[in-house]
Design goal:
It contains nine helices and five strands. By secondary structure, the protein is an alpha+beta fold. The chain has a five-stranded mixed sheet, sandwiched between helices. Strand 1 and strand 2 (about 145-155) form a beta hairpin. Helix 2 (about 35-40) packs across helix 3 (about 50-60) and helix 6 runs antiparallel to helix 7. The termini are far apart. Residues about 1-10 have low confidence and may be disordered.
Length: about 230
């Protein structure tokens, strides 16, 4: 009697197909990061299986998926066996992961602490190579009405229009605003410019009865909260 294909040992499969079979038999959580990436790229090169190639790519970024997500197509194609199409698959998959995390934070939708803001915005700005300034607009139940990029600039800083920010808050009917920007350097200490801009927003908000609830500095793995540090 012939043995069914589903009972074949994974070892009997072509090496590049083994991660797919493992996912079918054991589920997605059983796969390592390298095996998941191997499914994306499909095949390796003459010297390496897809899994071995994926391990080498991950090793180049110290097995950090956030760092992998920062690699450009031109950086990925330097690995033998990874062309433009495979590079695009990797970049697209990691971008979807970031967006999923951001959407999950929006589903919860209520800002209860500085951690809530970090979870909402870190996937968007936490690992950018340039600085961006964002505002999160809240209603009187601290639910998110809208989040918006206010400015985008170089690593040295950004320019933010306080008047336009408050105009948007009025149009949305927001009663609270949370400010946030990233520090590509990874430094969490606010600069004098950060402190000055926060005071400017607070003064404008007070005159319009729109409360500036917090200002976060966000990096890849951590954040600084003006409210938590009692700087508001």
């Amino acid at each position: 009697m012939e043995e069914s294909s589903t009972s074949f040992s994974i070892k009997s499969w072509n090496e590049d197909d083994r991660p797919r079979e493992k996912l079918l038999l054991k589920g997605k959580s059983a796969l390592s990061d390298a095996e998941l990436i191997a499914i994306l790229i499909g095949s390796g090169n003459r010297e390496e299986s897809a899994v071995d190639l994926s391990r080498r790519v991950l090793s180049s970024v110290e097995n950090n998926l956030n760092e992998l997500g920062r690699l450009s197509i031109s950086e990925l194609v330097k690995f033998k066996g990874i062309g433009e199409a495979k590079s695009i698959s990797i970049i697209a998959a990691l971008e979807l992961g970031k967006r999923r995390r951001s959407e999950e934070a929006l589903i919860r939708n209520k800002i209860t602490s500085s951690v809530s803001v970090f979870e909402l915005l870190q996937p968007t700005i936490g690992d950018l190579p340039h600085e961006e300034f964002w505002a999160v607009y809240l209603n009187n139940s601290n639910k998110v009405l809208h989040s918006q990029q206010l400015s985008k600039g170089g690593i040295t800083g950004t320019v933010v229009d306080v008047r336009l920010t408050m105009k948007t808050a009025i149009e949305l009917g927001a009663v609270g605003i949370i400010l946030a920007h990233n520090h590509p350097s990874g430094a969490l200490k606010p600069s004098q410019a950060d402190i000055k801009l926060t005071k400017k927003f607070k003064l404008a908000g007070d005159s319009l009865d729109i409360k500036v609830l917090d200002h976060l500095i966000i990096t890849e793995n951590a954040y600084f909260s003006f409210a938590d540090e009692q700087l508001l």
